[in-house]
What does this fold into?
Amino acid sequence: MFNAEKETQNIIAFIQDYYQKHNLKGAVLGVSGGKDSGVVSALLCAALGPENVVGLTLPCHSKPEDARDANLVAKHFGFEMINIDLTDTYDTFQKQIDALGDYSKEEKKNSEINLKPRLRMATCYYMAALLSATRGGTYLVPMNGNLCERFVGYYTKGGDNVGDISPIGNLMVDEVIAVGAVLGVPEQVLYRTPDDGLSGMSDEQKMGVSYKDIAKVIKGEEVQQEAYEKIMRMHNGSLHKLNIPMYEPESH
It folds into this structure.
């Protein structure tokens, strides 16, 4: 049985211990307006103090409600928010790609969707390095992803699967929500229908399976056969995102 209050305190202690052990100062994270980044923001504020947490809104042809809800979280927990608009950067990149050849919108679709989180992650690390150089201590970039997404590979390699510490990476969606409720994450953020902010679809629409079914498969519980097979196809087909093959010389 998941004890949300106890696990919340455990995660806070986990963050504090890591930061103390490695003499770290703060955190820079992208805040999307969704539950995962909202909960991670709240955990970091509880562990490090809001004065050591910096959130980034990183619009890129984004919906205005994303920034609205992100700023709601920042105001609620009292941490600094910086806006860096990546729309022009993204458009400039696309113009360079268009000059390479006459690629159709469908051919470019997956590349375009994954470019946005990669640009955002590069920006997070740029700001973490900048703040580390100017604020007297090392800033890390936390990961916002949860276990359900990780299990089926619902993230961008080189984008939102990159980070220095993962506070909720082993929590399923319902557990993330339970921790968020303990921390007092605003309800309109905590219970907002999750979407990637990129494709125009909800996460569940895009995946074709529910988070509830993914959680059941993780826990070894029964789901409909069609859902089980799809979830396992996604899981097995995305293992390359987790495991990087590395050649080992015979002489070692």
In short: Residues 105-134 form the longest helix (30 residues). The radius of gyration is 19 Å.
